[in-house]
Design goal:
It is a single chain. Helix content is 29%, strand content 40%. By secondary structure, it is of the alpha+beta class. The chain has a single domain, classed as Alpha-D-Glucose-1,6-Bisphosphate, Chain A, domain 4 (2-Layer Sandwich). Strands 1-7-6-5-4-3-2 form a seven-stranded antiparallel β-sheet. The mean pLDDT is 92.
Amino acid sequence: MHTENTVYIQGPKERIFELACATQNWPAILPHYRRVEILEQSEDGLRKVVEMAAVREGFLSPGVRFPVQWRSVQICEPEKGRIFFKHIGGIATGMWVVWTLEDDPWGRGVRVTIAHDLTYPLDILNGWFARDLVGDGFVHAIAGRTLQTIKQIVEQETRAQAPV
């Protein structure tokens, strides 16, 4: 299963990266995140093991809030504009996630992409289950909401700081 979400954000790349890397703060800024607990953390804070819990809203029916939970190793590379996650617990164990932040040469802002890749050890799970249910049904939807919310926060902050 492979899925990607991309947005262009008008604002400082450093601020976008700061919000994305500080997963422990996500429940305070992302309404679909219920909890993020740091289980381990390096001294510099760039490597963490986190337990995350979110909700997938509108799954199967409008108004339904389907809870999901997983555990990940997170590595932040601010100098390269990348954040890596390796899921080590939950339904998507083994999934690799890469956030990439790049300046857009066409002036659309910072291009932020989240790519997810997952191959289950049992081949029977890699068809509709991985692609349609896990990938499209949950991963793509939750990542899209995450990016849209970070975009709103950064662009609102940028407008508020703009000279009049």
